[in-house]
Structure formats: structure tokens, C-alpha cells
Design goal:
- By secondary structure, the protein is mainly beta.
- It has one domain: Agglutinin, subunit A, CATH 2.90.10.10.
- The chain contains one helix and 14 strands.
- The protein has a four-stranded antiparallel sheet, with no helix packed on it. It has a four-stranded antiparallel sheet with strand order 2-9-10-11, with no helix packed on it. A four-stranded antiparallel sheet has the order 3-4-7-8, with no helix packed on it.
- It is globular and about 50 Å long.
- This is Bulb-type lectin domain-containing protein.
Length: about 200
């Protein structure tokens, strides 16, 4: 085979391989979910140090009281990346799981005001939102543009949501059953003068 023909064959092979590869994932290789991007089933945000992952997950099957094996729903959560057993740190839609049949239509996005929203892409219906879960969000009085919102999964497992005009540092009210080492607890409360010294 001539060198030119070999070069063309390899180039064509690489082109075909790249066209048939997996579709690009909006959050599969990054720690950031930016404005206008969606996190779909199978997409993940991974912290910069690789210790934490955010995405949709499905717990292992459980056995009901009647002895039937149930197939659980899907949840949005943050979990430890490098452990053999799925260990969640935070679950967002704990009370509003995504049914298996709707997962392919489900996505996580940032709303215009910076809330995390799980919605059905086909119907536009909201399944879950942080609209009541973000606390301590402060906006600068001069800026109301939040179209540059982003959510970043930090190295300590906190999800930082913010834009150039405001920032909420992992202040989702996390209904969590464990406390990740290095995490911080934020309480929106003023200290009495006697304790503030």
C-alpha cells in the first residue's frame, strides 16, 4: 500500500470513528454546569480532584415487605466517586423521584434566576427545583443579569451555584444521612453579642 493511500485510509477511519462515537455529553467531563447547558441521564459533573460526582443515579433494587423485588426510580445526587458501593452525600429529588420510563426525557438545568431544576424535556414540566432550597443568596443591587449562572461541583463535594452578580456556596438545604469530611455547615443565624466574641 502506498504511503498516500495508507494516510487516506487512516484519515477516513479516524473520521468515521469520530462520527460514530458517543454523542457529546453536556457535563460528562467537567465540574461545571453552565447557563444554557443541560445535564441528562448518563451525564456527570465530577469535582476537579475526582472525589465527588453529581448526576442521576439509581439505587440498587430493594425487596418490599411483601417480598417483591422493586425497581427503584432515579434520583439526582452527589456521591463519592472512588468507592465500590454507591455512597450518596446528597440527594436532591428524594421525595420526587424520576420514573424509569421518563429518565430519557429528564434533564437538570439552571433556571434564569439560578435555581437548579429537574424537568421533563418533552413536556417542560418541573419535577424538582431548588427554588425553596437555596439560602443566603445575595444579589448586588445594581445587577440583575443571571444569564451567566453556573453550578460548580467543588473538590469538597459542595455544589457552588452563582453568577457574576451573586453566589450561593453549597447552601442547598441538604437532606443528607452522612457528613462528608471537609464539608462545612452553613446556618443562617445571627450570633448573640455574648457569643460573637
Amino acid at each position: 500500500m502506498t504511503p498516500l493511500l495508507l494516510l487516506l485510509s487512516v484519515s477516513l477511519g479516524l473520521l468515521l470513528f469520530s462520527l460514530h462515537g458517543a454523542p457529546p455529553c453536556s457535563g460528562a467531563t467537567t465540574d461545571t454546569l453552565g447557563a444554557g447547558r443541560a445535564l441528562a441521564a448518563g451525564d456527570r459533573l465530577v469535582s476537579g480532584n475526582g472525589k465527588f460526582t453529581l448526576g442521576f443515579f439509581r439505587p440498587s433494587a430493594t425487596v418490599s415487605k411483601s417480598g417483591n423485588i422493586t425497581s427503584p426510580n432515579w434520583y439526582l445526587g452527589i456521591w463519592f466517586s472512588n468507592v465500590s458501593v454507591l455512597t450518596t452525600v446528597w440527594v436532591g429529588n428524594r421525595d420526587k423521584p424520576v420514573p424509569d420510563l421518563q429518565l430519557s426525557l429528564t434533564q437538570l438545568k439552571l433556571s434564569r434566576d439560578g435555581d437548579l431544576v429537574i424537568s421533563n424535556n418533552a413536556t417542560g414540566s418541573v419535577i424538582w427545583s431548588t427554588s425553596t432550597g437555596v439560602v443566603n443568596r445575595t444579589r448586588s443591587a445594581s445587577s440583575t443579569n443571571t444569564s451567566t449562572s453556573s453550578a460548580v461541583l467543588s473538590n469538597n463535594g459542595n455544589l457552588v451555584v452563582g453568577s457574576s452578580s451573586w453566589r450561593a456556596v453549597a447552601e442547598l438545604r441538604l437532606p443528607v444521612g452522612c457528613f462528608a469530611l471537609g464539608s462545612q455547615v452553613w446556618v443562617e443565624q445571627e450570633l448573640p453579642a455574648s457569643l460573637a466574641r
